[in-house]
């Protein structure tokens, strides 16, 4: 197929071409051509290395009400928790001992974690672990807040744009949230020198190929260092409880396309992918992903960070998670490494 060759040659397509390519994502020949090229590129830049990030889900309080998310503020059944400073530092200590050199602090948008509280935690982690990268994933904030976190030592920021299509964005979010602000945040983060991660859900309710094509164009324009994508998975206490989950195959296809668009990108094989398919993360690595993000949160809180139904890895200790993932990574011919894992330049 001519579009496949064009993408491989130019590392870019026009919006309509992306949409047409996505329509052909079921074609086995197209799939294998793209995944072969994606793997070639990831090996060219990263060899057989898979980077690992220790994910600390430190609060499930959230002031937002995203229609897809299980910890939205209007889910009265969500059992809320937040880790205190000591608990967060304990997660880091445990993770450091296991070989993690990147910590990701992720949470709902919890007003308890003011700029002051966040910068205090960031400073303490960076003082104790100067050889580690610190990633934040705490949603939309002002330029000034992002600046303060950056000065305190945060290195990276994950903020999925969720969808780059205005109309689709409106179907997934309440009115007070806007795509324009989401994009503003991403640009602010870039300007402040963070390594930035954007990304989107695949198969969110009503999503079309044209909308996914828009996501690919947005990634091309933004040039993020990291891209997180995973299938949408319904949560039983959200307005999308009855919606269908996204497709694992389409997610894998998109992972390959993103690797070709952004050859040096840090691309995780996500927990959502592993939730829909027991081999999902391995398949993600074979499609071009080069990062895994096992959980370092305290086991007692794991189940409470309940973004979608049947989330995996909620019962094991961090050490077990790491070993299990190391085996999975090796089973597909890669190697889980202990290093910060910055993007190659
Ligand atoms: N509050 C932070 C972190 C959000 S949770 C922020 O706004 O960035 C991390 C990611 O989980 C979200 O960006 C979203 O893409 C994903 N997510 C949420 N609900 C989901 C669902 N039902 N299915 C799949 N992924 C989901």
Shape-level CATH architecture? Alpha-Beta Barrel
* CATH class bucket: Alpha Beta
- Count of helices? 14
The separation of the N and C termini measures: 32 Å
Question: Can you tell me the residue ranges where pLDDT is under 50 for at least 5 consecutive residues?
Answer: none
**What class do helices, strands and sheet pairing give?**
alpha/beta
Q: Count the strands?
A: 9
How does this structure look, described?
- This protein has 345 residues and is an alpha/beta fold.
- It has a single domain (2-337), classed as TIM Barrel (Alpha-Beta Barrel), CATH 3.20.20.70.
- The protein is built from 14 helices and nine strands.
- The strands form two sheets. A six-stranded parallel beta sheet has the order 2-3-4-5-6-7.
- Strand 4, helix 6 and strand 5 form a beta-alpha-beta unit.
- The mean pLDDT is 98.
- S-adenosyl-L-homocysteine binds at residues 68-69, 106, 108-109, 137-139, 159-160, 162, 201, 230, 232-233, 235, 272, 307-308.
Summarize the structure.
By secondary structure, the chain is α/β, with parallel strands linked by helices.
